Amino acid sequence: MMTRIRFRDSGTGVLLVVIAAVAFSAKAIFVKLAYRYGVDAVTLLMLRMAFALPFFMVVAWRAEMRADVRLGRGQIAAVVGLGLIGYYLAALFDFIGLQYISAGLERLILFAYPTLTVIFAMLMFGQRPARRVPLALLLSYAGIALAVMHEVRLSEGHVMLGTALVFASAVAYALYLVGSGHMIGQLGTVRFTAHAMVVSALAVIVQFLLTRDAGLLVQPLPVYALGLAMAVVSTVLPAFLMSAGIRRIGSGSAAMAASVGPVSTIVLAALVLGEPMTSLQLAGLVLVLAGVSLIGMGRSRQAGHGR
Fold first, then answer.
1. Cα–Cα distance measured from residue 261 to residue 265, given in angstroms and rounded to the nearest whole number
2. If you placed Cys at 261, which of 25, 165, 268, 283 could pair as Cys (CB 3.0 to 4.6 Å)?
3. What proportions of the chain, in percent to the nearest 5, are helix, strand and coil?
4. How many CA atoms within 13 Å lie on the side-chain side of 138?
């Protein structure tokens, strides 16, 4: 009976992570569709966060009502700092970068964050790398290099600038993951995530008010619809589905299950946006997924030993 329950939990966890990864990966498609209407990155990001903010405020409020201990000053400072790094800066770099590169390349670059997380954990906490880490890094970044070559051949735009911006997004998110472990242990995943998302949403709105004219809020109806879709489908739902999935199967297994994300983005980009799918791009995808899988297997085994 216990085995059946664990099997069901595992299957449900994988399903939740896969749905979350596909939903989150669809964000790049929504962004690219919205850019066709001439909206700029900061305005579009503001619409996404403004639509998502009420959801996270409700979750944050409910989490505080249920909490036994209120947030201390140090915890508030940590949540604000991590929220600005992990969701504000990461999202800003990503949205600007998507102006210059394809949705498929964006997803491959962002998916380098597990390898970056391992590197930062080694540098910041002195963790010794597993034997498979150098190979994982080599595979992942060789795959990204192939994907960038594919993009350069097909585009006359600022591919390297877009690549650098999206890679900066991956760096910011990896730093957030490394720094958030302690806070999640104190506050819980849902409580911490909700507060961090509220911080990032407010930061985006403030940036818009300080740097953009209010007239930019007047956009074609499809831009509002795409902003709402990004908020609900690619922000709120995946944030909590991923948390629920990780609770059931662990972070290592979740990282491996989430590898469906880049695949779904490339397929959706081809079907919806008409982005070409070449053998060079697919080869890069395979290498990136192989590298991330090696990292995920290492984490999964460590989690197993910890239990």
1. 6
2. 25
3. 85, 0, 15
4. 5
Crossing angle for the helix pair 159-187 and 189-211, nearest 10 degrees?
140
Residue ranges in 84-155 assigned as alpha helix (H): 90-97, 103-110, 113-125, 133-154
Q: What is the pLDDT of residue 298?
A: 53
Report how far residue 198's alpha carbon sits from residue 182's, in angstroms, rounded to the nearest whole number. 19
Instruction: Name the token pair of 219.
Output: 């956009």
Cα radius of gyration rounded to whole Å, the chain = 19
Q: How far is CA 184 from CA 104, 130, 193, 243, 303, in A?
A: 31, 24, 8, 11, 16
Confidence (pTM) = 0.81
Q: Which of 63-67, 127-131, 242-246, 283-287 has the lowest mean pLDDT?
A: 127-131
Q: Which DSSP state fits 36?
A: T
Number of H helices, E strands in the chain: 14, 0
Q: What is the mean pLDDT of the chain?
A: 82
Q: Name the amino acid, one letter, at 96.
A: I
Q: What is the DSSP letter of 130?
A: P
pLDDT greater than 80 at residue 19: yes
**Helices assigned H by DSSP within 188-307:** 189-211, 221-231, 237-257, 260-268, 279-306
**What is the pLDDT at residue 301?**
43
Q: Which residues contact 298 (CB under 8 A, 6 or more apart)?
A: 130, 132, 133, 252
